[in-house]
């Protein structure tokens, strides 16, 4: 469970070292962090077996550092670096366009240590005078700073969910545990998460509190009580745990799943029926009418069961009163992934590895969609794309467990034209169009660029339509009415990209798109076999946007899918 922690400490060391310039040491720490981040076994086990130095990119020096982290929970070297540079590196790094080197310059020349310092110096126009900055960069920094402020204090669902699930798994294994659930925004699958909320039913609450506050991912105990505790984790995030009696679990789970806005709405409904609702149940006079399951509580309030992903008080209560809740797409409904990369472009796994992972996931099909002529991502030209197609023909002739479709993720130039010739596009089963450079166009130009792509008869799917990256880059300012209308008109399928940083389209745009009659596809955009497992994040996003099975084209069996693509 400490892999992420070790990786994050090593990569933070690299950030500090990079403030003095990139050299072999920064690279070594980055490589080691990457190795551990993507490791599928527990780093503590490897260390225990004395095998650290057999991992790629880990030498004697870093192996010692890793052992120190595993033994003491921290790294003195990082603490020293922090003393040397007493600045809020986390916050400053979260500003798009600021990296270690620029941060060092700002610190050295202007004493900037926090976002507030940055804002002040920017507004006084001191930043533009620095070497390599200028007025335009200064304005950009100020603009991006606001976005960074909004995202601090929240972590990506895709990063927190596995950690929460691991904590749940460990607590489930304790003696006397009857129930464990992850509640809060994680259970609602909100794209970013403020803290981890865990609910339990147990015969031995004291032991659970003991275990929870002493897990290896805990940095600090904030409160430890008999039935509730809060800890701070290594990543700076808090985690809460609460113990309930079995009979209260349903009402507790409902309450602590939230959202707050939904809770308030439900409480109003209770009151208008002369009842009272809280985490211990629904009460009339002093009699408890329901508390054991969420379903019971909803029922007493006159509502159908509302799935957690819908609990944002955006119309689901009314729908539940009228029996009009959507029949949400299920996590098992996806029959194949239609956007993924291999080592033919910038992916890390081979076509064969991707295919075999897709078979393990039980898929009926997958599409190989490597980048085209993008210089940074080792994109393919017409010739290499044709070579890849022949390779896929061979693979298809050798296996019958799955069908491999021939695709490409084609770049849109600044006007929205594709960078692959039409006779090659003609031969592909699937063409994905995407913006990969020139992100900061005037909104009007970007709009036109994307509408142009939708009108292109070869384009089947528009990938990550708004280009946002959570905590990193804002979405393009698109005219969504126009976008969704054009997508419907042209039959272009819009992607719900499952990559933890993207989740694009996002939930509210999914809902809007469906109201316009658009069709969607949930893809991972995987660059490694591990990434194929992210599909659930995309399905969650689609569910949060009220999507049903019929709205998502990759829930179709292969034959129907191919018919639709033609
Ligand atoms: P987060 O942690 O910011 O991502 O969002 P949540 O929704 O997980 O919020 P959190 O952890 O503060 O509380 C978990 C749930 O507990 C929340 O969704 C609703 C419920 N809750 C907590 N405090 C209140 C409150 O003061 N009023 C109401 N109505 N509900 C609350
Ligand atoms: Ca929470
Ligand atoms: Ca909480």
Layout of helices and strands:
Layout: H1 3-18, H2 24-37, H3 43-48, H4 60-72, H5 76-84, H6 89-93, H7 100-110, H8 115-123, H9 134-151, E1 155-156, H10 157-172, E2 177-182, H11 184-187, E3 192-193, E4 195-202, H12 205-213, E5 218-224, E6 228-233, E7 238-244, H13 249-257, H14 260-272, E8 276-278, E9 281-284, E10 287-290, H15 294-300, H16 316-321, E11 336-337, H17 351-360, E12 365-368, H18 382-398, E13 403-411, H19 422-427, E14 430-434, H20 443-455, E15 461-462, H21 480-490, E16 493-497, H22 507-515, E17 520-523, H23 535-544, H24 558-565
Parallel strand pairs: 4-7, 11-12, 12-13, 13-14, 14-15, 15-16, 16-17
Antiparallel strand pairs: 1-3, 2-4, 5-6, 6-7, 8-9, 9-10
Helix pairs in contact: 1-2, 1-5, 8-9, 13-15, 20-21, 22-23
2'-deoxyguanosine-5'-triphosphate is lined by residues 184-185, 190, 193-195, 197, 255-256, 258-260, 263-264.
Index terms:
binds calcium ion; globular; 566 residues; 24 helices; Beta Polymerase, domain 2; single chain; Beta Polymerase, domain 3; five-stranded mixed sheet; DNA polymerase, domain 1; alpha/beta
Structure overview:
Helix content is 44%, strand content 14%. By secondary structure, the protein is an alpha/beta fold. A 7-stranded parallel beta sheet has the order 11-12-13-14-15-16-17. Helix 18 (382-398) links the parallel strand 12 and strand 13 (403-411). Helix 8 (115-123) runs antiparallel to helix 9 (134-151), helix 20 (443-455) runs parallel beside helix 21 and helix 22 packs across helix 23 (535-544). The two termini are 46 Å apart. The protein binds 2'-deoxyguanosine-5'-triphosphate (DGT) and calcium ion (CA) (2 copies). The site of one calcium ion has 4 residues, from strand 4.
């Amino acid at each position: 469970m400490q892999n992420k922690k070790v990786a994050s400490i090593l990569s933070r060391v690299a950030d500090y070292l990079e403030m003095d310039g990139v050299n072999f040491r920064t690279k070594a720490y980055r490589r080691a962090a990457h190795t551990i981040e993507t490791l599928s076994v527990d780093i503590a086990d490897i260390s225990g077996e004395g095998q650290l130095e057999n991992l790629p990119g880990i030498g004697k020096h870093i192996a010692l550092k890793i052992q120190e982290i595993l033994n003491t929970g921290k790294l003195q070297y990082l603490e020293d670096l922090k003393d040397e540079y007493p600045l809020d590196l986390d916050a400053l790094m979260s500003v798009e366009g600021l990296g270690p080197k620029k941060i060092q310059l700002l610190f050295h020349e202007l004493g900037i240590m926090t976002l507030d310092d940055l804002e002040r110096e920017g507004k006084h126009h001191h930043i533009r005078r620095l070497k390599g900055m200028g007025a335009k960069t200064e304005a950009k920094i100020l603009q991006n700073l606001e976005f960074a402020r909004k995202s601090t204090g929240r972590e990506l669902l895709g990063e927190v969910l596995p950690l929460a699930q691991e904590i749940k798994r460990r607590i489930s294994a304790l003696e006397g545990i009857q129930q464990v659930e992850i509640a809060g925004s994680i259970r609602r699958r909100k794209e970013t998460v403020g803290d981890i909320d865990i609910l339990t039913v147990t015969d031995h609450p004291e032991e659970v509190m003991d275990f929870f506050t002493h897990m290896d991912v805990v940095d600090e105990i904030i409160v430890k009580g008999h039935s509730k505790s809060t800890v701070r984790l290594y990543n700076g995030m808090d985690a809460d745990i609460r113990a309930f009696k079995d009979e209260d679990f349903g009402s507790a789970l409902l309450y602590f799943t939230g959202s707050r806005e939904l809770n308030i709405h439900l409480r109003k409904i209770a009151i208008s029926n002369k009842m009272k609702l809280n985490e211990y149940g629904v009460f009339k006079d002093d009699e408890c009418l329901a508390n054991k399951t969420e379903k019971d509580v909803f029922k007493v309030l006159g509502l159908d069961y509302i799935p957690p992903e819908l609990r944002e008080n955006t119309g689901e209560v009314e729908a539940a009163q009228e029996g009009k809740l959507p029949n949400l797409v299920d996590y098992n409904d996806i029959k194949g992934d239609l956007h993924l990369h291999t080592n033919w472009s910038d992916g890390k796994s081979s076509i064969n590895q991707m295919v075999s992972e897709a078979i393990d996931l039980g898929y009926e099909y997958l599409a190989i969609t490597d980048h085209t002529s993008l210089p940074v991502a080792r994109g393919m030209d017409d010739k290499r794309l044709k070579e890849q197609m022949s390779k896929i023909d061979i693979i298809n002739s050798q296996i019958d467990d799955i069908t491999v479709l021939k695709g490409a993720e084609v770049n849109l130039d600044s006007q929205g034209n594709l960078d692959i010739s039409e006779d090659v596009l003609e031969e592909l089963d699937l063409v994905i169009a995407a913006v990969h450079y020139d992100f900061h166009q005037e909104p009007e130009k970007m709009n036109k660029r994307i509408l142009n792509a939708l009108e292109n008869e070869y384009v089947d799917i528009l990938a990550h339509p708004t280009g946002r990256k959570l905590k990193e880059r804002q979405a393009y300012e698109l005219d969504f009415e126009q976008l969704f209308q054009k997508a419907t008109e042209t039959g272009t399928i819009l992607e719900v990209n499952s990559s933890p940083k993207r989740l694009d389209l996002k939930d509210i745009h999914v809902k809007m798109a469906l109201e316009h009659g658009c069709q969607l596809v949930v893809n991972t955009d995987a660059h490694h076999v591990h990434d194929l497992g992210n599909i659930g994040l995309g399905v969650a996003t689609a569910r949060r946007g009220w999507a049903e099975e019929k709205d998502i084209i990759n829930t179709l069996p292969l034959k129907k899918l191919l018919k639709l693509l033609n």
